[in-house]
Write a sequence for this structure.
């Protein structure tokens, strides 16, 4: 086992364990904090994949904005910090069954696919992934249209969120 | 070097955990937490396929960034809906929000 594999395994188990705590913890503030640790694990996975920009955006946008938004929402929708009664609905065992079946299905699908043991080619010398990403995001030959559509979607969603949550008295 | 399958299995496991959260939790905010886990596992897949495919083609990373934007939009609207429902009906339990159930 190389050092990279050991690092990957540690990060992967940390991420999966935190993710498991997100869906099982009773206290929702704790669940949101476990979500922060899961998102941080995913950011480390991005860094292992040489996707540095994605790792930074993951920390800034997901941990800095979305997770904090979750914590605010939990605090705003809570009479006391704990929920009354059980945290899972009566059909939770069916949820376990479906989740396990989906994982098994994905596993068998991946087993039947040939490209699994593929290893990554070395990144060409002098190739700057972040600069290239910035270029293609604003290049008319590449992805400028999806980029602009995403920004319009974001503005529309934020205006809609303010409209929906606004308290009319 | 880590083989591609490890990343795909990590993403599949994280997706299944998020799916369980969406299906089993009663609290609407917790359901949104599960959706975030699923979106993140998809992003791991996109980044892994970018790295293990042709690095010079940036489509995988661009798609991941679009997913970031969609996730931010989704969580803003979703939490606004939850807060609005909480204000009107004083509950965030998904089973109790049944106005549109016939």
């Amino acid at each position: 086992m190389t050092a990279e594999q050991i690092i990957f395994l540690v990060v992967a188990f940390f991420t999966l364990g935190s993710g498991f705590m997100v869906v099982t913890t009773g206290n929702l503030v704790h669940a949101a904090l476990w979500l922060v640790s899961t998102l941080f694990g995913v950011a480390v996975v991005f860094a292992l994949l040489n996707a540095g920009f994605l790792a930074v955006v993951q920390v800034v946008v997901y941990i800095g904005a979305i997770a904090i938004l979750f914590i605010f929402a939990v605090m705003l929708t809570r009479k006391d910090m704990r929920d009354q009664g059980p945290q899972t609905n009566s059909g939770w065992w069916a949820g376990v069954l479906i989740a396990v079946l989906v994982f098994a299905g994905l596993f068998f699908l991946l087993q039947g696919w040939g490209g699994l043991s593929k290893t990554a080619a070395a990144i060409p010398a002098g190739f700057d992934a972040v600069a290239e990403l910035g270029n293609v995001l604003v290049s008319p030959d590449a992805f400028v249209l999806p980029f602009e559509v995403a920004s319009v979607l974001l503005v529309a969603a934020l205006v809609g969120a303010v409209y929906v949550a606004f308290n009319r008295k | 070097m880590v083989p591609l399958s490890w990343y795909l299995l990590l993403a599949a496991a994280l997706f299944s955990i998020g799916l369980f959260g969406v299906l089993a939790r009663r609290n609407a905010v917790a359901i949104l937490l599960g959706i975030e886990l699923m979106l993140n596992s998809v992003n791991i897949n996109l980044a892994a396929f970018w790295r293990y495919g042709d690095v010079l083609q940036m489509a995988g990373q661009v798609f991941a960034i679009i997913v970031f934007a969609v996730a931010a939009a989704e969580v803003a609207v979703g939490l606004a809906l939850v807060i609005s429902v909480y204000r009107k009906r004083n509950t965030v339990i998904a089973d109790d929000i049944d106005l549109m159930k016939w």
